[in-house]
Amino acid sequence: MLLATVVGTVVATRKDERLVSSKLLVARPMDPSGKPEGNYLVAVDTVDAGVGETVLIVSGSSARMAAGLKDCPVDAAIVGIVDHVEVGK
Predict the structure, then answer these.
(1) Contacts of 78 (CB under 8 A, 6+ apart)
(2) Which of 10, 23, 58, 86 is at 20 to 30 A from 17, Cα to Cα?
């Protein structure tokens, strides 16, 4: 599971028919302190997230288990919107 910030959207007028009606968002993984790390990725949004929000992303076979994505060609899915992150010392 990845912690990430949504930084943009993707519009694809032609895509696999199983992805029709799916919202695609660009996200940037980050560490628990909010520092960006890693490469950007495109994820299917299952929780109605928006640009600027901190989200939880699952990838690989777990992404296909997210609500409504069974048997879809998906490698990353947004499955939660994060309200707060707290890390102990």
Answers:
(1) 6, 25, 27, 43, 44, 45, 46, 47, 49, 55, 56, 57
(2) 58
